[in-house]
Records
---
Amino acid sequence: MVYTFACPAPCSRVIMVDAHNDDDAITKIIGAGAINCRNMKNSPCREKVPHLPPLPEKKLREIVHLCMNVEHCYGS
């Protein structure tokens, strides 16, 4: 299945991954850098909104799960 994640504002990054299930997708999306700008001091997002606090792993996983979409691909 293909999962798509769009980082929340102020970021506009979109990440797509191929995963077996939601947990696999969340791990891959985070590994690809989802919301990573929240945890970097000199990211473009932190320059736009400097008061963004870093996110702990559990909260990061929750946000990714809430914001991702899945496309079910069925074979012919």
Note: The helical segments are 22-31, 44-48, 57-67.
---
Amino acid sequence: MTGRERELPIVADRIRFDDARVLVRDAADLTWALLALDARYFPLPGWQRLSKKSKWQDAYSTKDPHLVDSALSAAQLCSAWASGVSNADAAAVDRMGYRAPSALTPSPYPLGLDGAIAAQHNLFLRLGAEFPSADSLTAIVRAQRVVSALAARAAADVDADDLVARFGRRAETYQRLMGMLVDRVAGPLGRGQSAVAEAEAAQVAMEDAVGTGERASLDQLGWLRRLFTMTDTFVAARTRQGIEQQRYLVWNELTLSEVDLGGKRRAVRKYEPIDGRNHPNLYAAVKALAPVTEGPRLGEGGPRRDDFTRTVETAGEMDRARRYGSGPVRDTGMERRDRAGLAR
């Protein structure tokens, strides 16, 4: 239920076939393990079975087995089909898993740097929760440009030269991105008004901090640096999403309106989906903001899954041997004659 409600809606549009195999194998192995434990402990007084219609005995009976005659055999079959998961595939799916969202910082925010940090934190969460329309994205980019420039000034007042350069580059990146969005990119799909409010709140708080001469601590500047990086990742991801899903459109030329006004038609903008041909600089600006990760890092997901499958398989074999012996003995005619001769 958790996987259905939380995992799949989040990753459904991002998983490949190999990723789906990892999910199938994980679900199958977990089901297999739960059924094995249920069969092992159901004789205990008070044990509640997973199902009152369990077919565990059918799976290990001496009858001719069906391909799938129980949840146990279905889990075993699915696990075998989805075996051979590579480390890269396993690591990629593991990073897609559900993570409980951080709590929003309550408002109203204090003025100054603490208020800017709180608003920036909530901006990051808002961008992760909803897709911004083109107008909302433009407003967020405009506010973040100002916040970055003010943060660079606050860092300069305490001689944090490395952060001055970092925040200055971020302000320049957002300046270029804003020039490519304003008056050129549009799209009615999406929301993002709450994210716009957080971005504007961060700008107001930073303006208050710099205007009143508040001196930033290194801890406050460090929080801004981390939150800026996290926000950049989401702004870039949402921009790529809008381009790939054709939610954001760009205009480069005018066309005549279809509405005839007294024999004349007005010139209107002609919008089209964004690609590398009609808006090439936007791709470069988004990449400068937050480059796309070049594939997953190898982890231990594959070997650990193999170990877990072997553990469950071995435990199942031990339970079957303990309950039903090493295996059913086929009573052939020759075996009956041999037993009859020994009896005589």
Note: The two ends are 63 Å apart (CA to CA).
---
Amino acid sequence: MPTMKYIPRCQWCGKTGASAQSSNGAPRQTPKVPGKCQSHPSGKPNMPHSPQWEPRG
């Protein structure tokens, strides 16, 4: 089975973090994006990002 790269992308602002590889679906580790999200729906500028794994061929 081919290995795919995945990248964590914040669902609110689109900022990305370090990529990971997996051969059977999204990586098991929790996706992380450094810093604070300026586009968080709460409107607070010091909230953490809400990343999800996104495939990157």
Note: The longest strand covers residues 4-10.
